[in-house]
Amino acid sequence: MKVLICGGAGYIGSHIVREFTSLSGYEIVIVDNLSKGHVESIPKGVTFEEADICDKKSIEAVFEKHKPGAVMHFCASIEVGESVIDPLKYYENNVTGTIYLLQTMQKYKVKYFIFSSTAAIFGNPETTPIADDAKSVPINPYGDSKLTVEKILGWCENAFDIRYVCLRYFNACGAHESGEIGEDHNPETHLIPLILQVALGRRPQIKIYGNDYDTRDGTCIRDYIHVTDLAHAHIKALEYLVKENKSQKFNLGSGEGYSVKEVIEAARKVTGHPIPAVVEGRRPGDPAVLIAGSKRAEEILGWTRKYKNVEDIVASAWKYHQAYPHGYAPK
Ligand code: UDP
């Protein structure tokens, strides 16, 4: 089967591409506009089309040329804080872009769609760990833009022959075990790479956004999931779609969380660096605790996690950061 991986040069997409390359029976085509993705992450021999999902003509040309059987969609703006400041950017990239992709799928009769959703659709959840069918009440435009797509997908399934899987990631992190690909955002806003930049001497200290949350040490708690474990869930989701021909939504979490202070402490152990930290005010749009169970993914997809410990996750990210201390392409 030919699988179009939109956003395949980005952080999560590149790790999925890497897992696919070790499987037989799939042909991968990466679509990426390289606004955030890195051409250096694309493995030799994998087809790459530079195109923007918000440019319908260029996306149609890719479908016309490659005739994919399934689409995985990772092109999105992903910063919670930025989404609060610039909501329209989020609705344009995340909702309008996805609509163009779905319209193109409808035109070319592509049936299977895997959507990169998020824990942020749940806002401040009523219960923890968050169940797969928990109520979705996002508290920032980023989460709302992803929830809007989840709703659109339900109506599309109803209206035309599309089957989808939504995968709600909690905090994707870590890097491929080879250290050859990893997390490189510009600007970087995510906790683990920022902490490791302190360990590398690129930043003097890590800022802790708020220590007055109702949590065990006052800092926000998140469910950190290794990107390679996430990649495996995508492949299982595609197998499920093809075999069962049913749409479904899965939370991908670990059932446990780590506070910001605990992640910093783990990084101190892994890197041997003191990693100075300073407490700042809360970041807008941040819920106190986000932890998910993955009951449905475990039961239906048979998904299991290899990385169960935050230190192992940080160690894998550290391997990449040491190999690429200034990211893929130092300027
Ligand atoms: N965070 C922090 N300092 C930073 C970056 C992030 O304290 O420099 C906190 C952030 O407020 C959140 C957690 O770390 O509670 C994880 O944030 P990240 O941006 O990595 O992921 P998100 O939870 O927003 O998807």
UniProtKB/TrEMBL annotation:
Q: Which reaction(s) does its UniProt entry say it catalyses?
A: UDP-alpha-D-glucose = UDP-alpha-D-galactose
Under which EC number(s) is this enzyme classified? 5.1.3.2
Query: Which GO BP terms apply?
Result: galactose metabolic process
On whether Membrane is a keyword of this UniProt record, the answer is no
Task: Describe, as the record does, how this protein assembles with itself and its partners.
Answer: Homodimer.
List the NCBIfam families.
Answer: galE
- Provide the protein name: UDP-glucose 4-epimerase
**Which organism is this protein's natural source?**
Rhizophagus irregularis (strain DAOM 197198w)
